[in-house]
Amino acid sequence: PALLGQRIVVPIVANLPDDAKFNKFTPKIGVEYKASNDVLLFASYAKGFRSGGFNGRLIAPQRTVPSYDPDTNDAYEIGFKSDLADRRLRLNGTAFYSKYKGIQQTISDPAVQFRVANAGDATLKGFELELNAVPADGLRFDVGLGYTDSEFKNVPALVGPINGNQLPFSPKWTVALGAEYAADLGTGGKLTPRVDWRYQAKTFFTAFNLPFEQQSGYGLLSARITWTDADDRFSISAYGDNLTDKEYY
Which residues of the chain fall below pLDDT 50? Predict the structure, then answer.
């Protein structure tokens, strides 16, 4: 240990990098077709881009600061939006496909502990469905369903064994359910209780998909009650989140 008051200077890097510039043309193209007054069809393509950079966290003397290159994402979407049953039923759907090249991920590197690196390619594909129903005045139901299939591909050996793994924070399934009823109190305004439940399937926190770096599937229940004045100018709400006291990361 150093003596009290003694100043210790430890060189972290021998050569600091200069700078780096990254440029990319990122177009977005979309088309819509109104099949009827109540049905809209659409499709789109977009190019995504994240610039590269330098890692600033080192735990041992290094000759240079590790850097990483940009990554790109080609995203395709096709879907529809519709109002049915005299506009008491709304159904929307989207299918998507995304392909990353050189996707940036945090990896474990013995020389610098953790750093950002280009982890090969990745794909995501899936769909989202949304249903809103108003079967009677004041009564409303909401349903949402999402599916995502994600996978790492063409991963460099330096990154580690993540080929075929699921992307972090990308659960395969998500479900959302909600219901509310707006009770008309006449001159006393309106009272609207609402209940929501949301579920997400197993989620990994890192690209390595290790057992101790994941969250099992879970659902959260919440509720809210809102009073709105007769002129619809003011509202007061009381709410509760995670009413079943579910523990999750």
Answer: 1
Q: How many residues does the chain have?
A: 249
The pLDDT score that the predictor gives to residue 247 is 95
Beta bridge partners of 147: 127, 173
Residues 6+ away with beta carbon under 8 Å from 7: none
Residue 211, φ and ψ in degrees, nearest 5: -60, -35
Residue (of 193, 187, 185, 195) closest to 222 by Cα position: 195
Per-residue confidence (pLDDT) for residue 214, from 0 to 100: 96
Residues 43-68 as b/e (b if ≥16 CB within 10 A, e otherwise) read ebeeeeebebeebeeeeeebeebbeb
The model's pTM is: 0.85
Closest CA to 179 of 193, 199, 200, 189: 193
- Pair of tokens at residue 197: 């439940």
Q: How far apart are CA 30 and CA 76, in angstroms?
A: 10
Please, are residues 96 and 124 in contact by the beta-carbon 8 Å criterion? yes
pLDDT in tens, 211-223: 999 999 999 999 9
Contact 46, 63 (CB under 8 A): no
